Amino acid sequence: MSGRAIALAIWAVLTIGMAAIGGPLAPVVVFSFALIAPGRAIVARVELDDLALEIGLTFAVSFSVVILVSLAMLLVDVFTPLRALAVVGLVTVLFAIPSRREPAEA
């Protein structure tokens, strides 16, 4: 696994743990994870030259992932906030793992 994947996995586990335990910082940690991590894992796969575009896409993709996961869980009637956070964490870690690229044929 890459360093980014390990860092996002640790962030996901800590966020889910803090959400389960609760406390005054839990909403801040959960909101920051949901707003940044899924989009960062996905947008990092695309090589962009514009930092502003990368930051904007990170927030937009994160929001989209959270909404899609939540809606899918609501449709099958298994939604709880902690479960949704766990699925978003799983999606984040899966997208952070670097893919193996096939060598180009000559």
Task: Outline the structure in words.
The two termini are 29 Å apart. 74% of the residues lie in helices and 0% in strands. The longest helix has 25 residues, at 51-75. The chain has helices at 3-21, 26-43, 51-75, 81-96. The relative contact order is 0.18. It is built from 4 helices and no strands. It has one domain (3-96). The protein is mainly α and 106 residues long.
Tag the structure with descriptive keywords:
single chain, 106 residues, mainly alpha
Give the H and E element order: HHHH
Global Rg: 15 Å
Summarize the main sheet: none
The CA-CA distance between the termini, in Å, is: 29 Å
Number of domains: 1
Tally the helices: what do you get?
4
Q: Assess the beta-strand content as a share of residues.
A: under 5%
Structural class: mainly alpha
Concise overview:
This protein is mostly helical and 106 residues long. Helix content is 74%, strand content 0%.
Any chance you could write out the topology, listing elements then pairs?
Layout: H1 3-21, H2 26-43, H3 51-75, H4 81-96
